[in-house]
Amino acid sequence: MKHSAFFWFVLPSATAMLLFIFFPIVSIIVQSLYVEHAQVIIETENCGPFGCTPTTMVDQEATEALRREQPLGRFAGFTTYLDRGHLAVNEVAAAWDASSGWRDFGGRMLNLPFYKAMAFTLTYTFIVTPLTIILGFMIAVAVNGAVRAIRGPLIFFSLLPMIVTPLVGSLILFWMVDARGIIGATLQALADDPGLSVKASTPLMWIMLMVYGVWHAAPFAFIVYYAGLQTVNTDTLESAMIDGASRWQRIRYVVIPHLLPLTTFIALIQLMDNFRVFEPIVSFAASAHATSLSWAIYNDLGGETRQLSSAAATSVLTILGVAILLSPVLVRTWREFSRART
Amino acid sequence: MKMWTTAALGTAIAILGSTAALAACPVTEGRINIVGNEFPAIQSVAAKALECAEGIEAESNLTADHQKINVAGMSGNPAEYTSAIIANSSIVALINEDVIRPLDDLIAAHGQDIAQRQLITIDGKVMAVAFMANAQHLVYRADVLEQIGVEPPKTYEEMLEAARMIREQGIMENPVGGAYAAGWNLAEEFVNMYIGHGGEFYKPGTAEVSINNEQGVATLNMLKALSEYMNPDFLTHDSNATSAEWEAGNVALMNMWGSRTGVLMDSEGSEPVVYENTKVGPPMTVGGGTNPASTLWWDGWTVAKNIDDAAAAATFQALAHATSSALLNDETMGQAVWLMDGYKPAPVNEGVLAAVAMGTTPYPMLPYQGLLHTALGDNLAEFLQGKESAEQALADVEAAYTAAAKEKGFLN
To answer: How far is CA A333 from the centre of its chain?
Structure first.
């Protein structure tokens, strides 16, 4: 392609990426380095239906003047990153000094919001991603082996979990696992424990969130693999059959190697998606048991007083986390790509 | 102050019934866009206000997530929302961000007939017009209490005792209800109970939090004792889920918002045995204190700062009309404890009126209270799950609040 043609070809998407991805990221990085001005508090009196009470309020005019002078707020450098709500360096050091052993240290770390969120986020990512890939592959092989006439409806039903809006899908599951819901009541009967409640137990809540994650994402892996299965070389498969390979051996030695690049692709997308786990935590009202980085951002912005710098710092940490997670896969892809060219 | 509020709300409102001139309605210029919470009383007010719009743009966005969007929706110029319906806690964020305008000149022009007690005056300027009072108070099942032979509890200790009897007699497994969902609701229950124990949230005259004390521990222990008589899923139950538990007949005692009791006492959604026996009582005290373990709230409306004068005038007039006696009819009368003239209390409102008469503390309107509320909501669940000590939970709240207050410039 000529350089000018290439330029015009990528211009629209490059502009969109610049506007909607690059600039917002620059903006949150800048935001995360600043904190608000020292508040000018004045003593005053509030009157309302329940009488007058002395109270304090923010002095609007003084604040306005401060903001005009320095619209971004006070420069804080990495203070927000290092405070208790994020990397909590002082608290981690204190926990290290005070703890009696690894177990105790771990417990103290999990009391800090960032590490608590990371513990769940990473567990979720590393359990849900492989399960999604395996389940998606199994569905794809099964659908591909089905009689042609019923494949259409089968594909439709297999895709349903992805079609359902995440918030709605998780709400439905949330009601089903309620102590009086169909799954919750069945579990109580199976465990012979009328007090058993999924919503009240941290391990069960974690399992439910991960089950939901796999249920929701498996159709994506399925459809990618299903498309890949259509491109498997039938000559190779037939010759494998003539050589006496069983169905399992054909999958293991022909199909899986053929689909490996797709697995890399799915793993990339799923690692990114799962690291940002958010909707099920909100829908399941699970924040008492599990939090994630995305939930922390939402929580910072959702209070009556918005904590923009804190949310920005968590966002930057999320981006760094995704970059670290993806680096092995990206490095591998790059190596394969270079090898293919030489 | 106690006498004043009793007079103003308990009886005077009912008797006054004035026939003052109504704010101009319909309005034909400007635009109206209201953001606010979602419960029957606010839905009635917003609908009434939108009726006033004649040939102008008028809409409302009522959602439980209103606090997440109102500051953002009013920060632009012109602001998306011309009015936010808020409560005494959430007005603080709007004032901190300077997105609402003083109403004095609009009142002079269009609002002469608004009752003085409705005006929320901050630092000498009217910033909001309140239209209803709200508080959490006792809701109980008269038939269940009769069965165990006790009077409606006046203290949380009596509530625990009644709950124990109901469970032991096999009437209900989890007789106590409560909006204990981790987050805002749980924090609100802590604030109620801490005030009931006579606690102070901050070191006097500063923004430095001090809740890790005897009262704080007593508060947490009482919350935990109550939670042991609740459905094990209590940390996921907000006001809606708690109301559903009540209507399902699973609960006999709870501390619930006055604004939500109307729904519990109507014939929709529950069996006659539940709604006929649902009664309200005054808020309870705790730990031998005299101050009720509850907070008083008002709900009111504001007018955005960053809008043109025509939109401000239209919004003001429509909402002034919607919160005048013109709103009151058989359907709306019981929806809330209305503050405007012409309101006649219904039995469903007795809990809130009693809360006012008992001199219940209004929810603190401090610029940094929202940060403490968020910190409480995030850090108390682990104690209630038995994963950490009360002292540790309170220390976590203080540390989380301090980090947030430093970022927002309230502490150095």
So the answer is: 22
